[in-house]
Amino acid sequence: MHGDELEIDEPLVRRLLADEFPEWAGLPLRRVEPAGTDNAIFRLGEELAVRLARRKGPTRSGGKEFDWLPRLAPLVPLEIPVAVAQGRPTHEYPWFWDVFTWVEGAPTPIEAIDPTFAASDLALFVAALQAALERPRTPRQWLVLAAVALVTSAVTYLVFERYLMVLLPRGAWTDW
């Protein structure tokens, strides 16, 4: 836990929901594990998730997720969470917080990942992102495209660095 990190527990989330979205206050709520270091995430009912920053949260409403995820969701080949609502800061929690759609799934151990399928899925996802962005028209769109390219390059490097040595004949990696 960071020194400036807020303690976010189920009772706090329930109070925030009751104040801001009483229609959801009675739904089952449980913390999602493993917990991240930046956000606390709670599953809300069967179809929603609540995400609250643990530290240095958003001080303005809206944000990248509210702008981009609804636009990208129908255009990419994988299900992604979409922002549904945003709660306001209170005396108990100082930042804006979000409610997203829940995407069902479970972490996959790296040993169980087929590198060919992973590379194919990654390529399809990146191609869909690029098509969704079309030709950037503003400096912000260029920055988003550059960020997508950077993340894609980093992920591709990590995937192939991890698996290329397994696929190549012994010694071929060192001769390259």
Summarize the structure.
The chain has 176 residues and is of the alpha+beta class. The protein has 5 helices and 5 strands, in the order αβββαββααα. A hairpin with a 3-residue loop joins strand 2 (39-44) and strand 3 (48-53).
Class inferred from helices and paired strands: alpha+beta
**For the largest beta sheet, what order do the strands appear in spatially?**
1-2-3-5-4
Major sheet details:
5 strands, antiparallel
Mean pLDDT: 80
The CATH architecture designation of the largest domain is 2-Layer Sandwich
- In CATH's first tier, which class of the largest domain applies? Alpha Beta
- The DSSP helix count reads 5
Cα distance, first to last residue?
Answer: 43 Å
Query: What is CATH's topology name of the largest domain?
Result: Phosphorylase Kinase, domain 1
In terms of quaternary structure, what is this? single chain
Q: What's the CATH superfamily of the largest domain, by name?
A: Phosphorylase Kinase, domain 1
Low-confidence stretches: 164-169, 172-176
Give the strand tally: 5
C-alpha geometry: globular
How large is the share of residues in beta strands? 5-15%
Along the chain, the helix and strand elements come as HEEEHEEHHH
Helix content percent band: 40-55%
Structure description:
The protein folds into two domains: 10-101, 2-Layer Sandwich (Phosphorylase Kinase, domain 1), CATH 3.30.200.20; 110-175. The relative contact order is 0.11. Strands 1-2-3-5-4 form a five-stranded antiparallel beta sheet. Helix 3 runs antiparallel to helix 4 (139-167). It is α+β, with helices and mostly antiparallel strands and 176 residues long. 41% of the residues lie in helices and 14% in strands. It is built from five helices and five strands; from the N terminus they run H-E-E-E-H-E-E-H-H-H. The longest helix has 29 residues, at 139-167.
